[in-house]
Amino acid sequence: MSSATWRNVFTYNKYTQIAARALRQSLNESERVQAEKRGLTILRYQNWENGVGGPQTHLVPPVEKEIKQGVV
Amino acid sequence: MSVGSCDRLTLELIAADGLQVAMSALRLVSSAARRAPRSFATGRRGYAEAADKIKLSLVLPHQAIFTSTEVVQVNLPAATGDMGILANHVPTIEPLRAGVVEVLEPGNAAKKWFVSGGFATVHPNNMLTINAVEAAPLEDFSAEAVRANLQEAQRVAGGNGSEEDKMEARVEADVYEAIQHALSAR
What we know:
Strand order of the largest sheet of chain B: 2-1-9-8-5
Order of helices and strands of chain B: HHEEEEEEEEEEHH
Radius of gyration of chain A: 18 Å
Oligomer: heterodimer
Helix content of chain A: 25-40%
Number of helices of chain B: 4
Number of strands of chain A: 4
Shape of chain B: elongated
Largest sheet of chain B: 5 strands, mixed
Strand content of chain B: 25-35%
Helix content of chain B: 25-40%
Number of domains of chain A: 1
Radius of gyration of chain B: 27 Å
C-alpha cells in the first residue's frame, strides 16, 4: 500500500481518526448525519504556569459557517 | 494397535529373556493399547466443531455490537493479511486495516461489518475483543458517495499540497478502495 509510510507523517491516533472520518463520509445520507456528530471534536486547552493561565487554544480550529441570507 | 511401542518393548524383552516372556508382554501391551484412547490426549488441534465457540466482543467507542457473544468464527482483515479466528485460538494481538469483519454465529447466516481499523485481541480464556473506531454494516454505504470521495482523495494525493495532506488523502483513498472492494464482493 502506498500509504504504509504514514508513520513518518502522523501518529497512530491521527491515522485512525482519518480512516474513521473516511468511513463516516461514505455512509448513506441518514446514517451519515448521525455519524458526522461523532466526528465532532470541540476541545479547548490551556497551559497554566505559575498560577497564570495561558491562552485557550482549540484542538481543532472551529470552521466559520457562513450565515445564508434568506431571499426576501 | 500401536505397533511402534510394541516393537521396542518386545525387542528389549527378547534381548533380556526368552521368547515366552516376550509373547506374554506383547499380549499385555496390545490389550493395553486397545483399552487406551485412540487419539492423543492433549494438544490435539483439529478444526473446531460448531459446538466450540469463542466469545466475541466487537466494540466501538459509541456502540457495542457484540458483548461476549458466543460465535463460531470471526474473519478479520488484519494488517498482515486476512485471518479467521476459531474457538481456542492462540492469544494474539492484530492491528486491523480497513476491511470487512465477518461474524459466523451458530445457526445464523454470516454478518458483515466494514471496519475502519483498530485492533483484534485474542485472550487466553477463549475471548476475542475487536476494538474499532468506526464500523457499519455493508448496506449502510452509498456507492456513489464512495466513488466521489475516492476521486477527490486521489486528486489531492496526486496534487501538490503538503506532504501531510497528501498522506492523509492516500490513507483516505485506501479506505475508499477497501469499501468499494467490499461492496462489489458482497
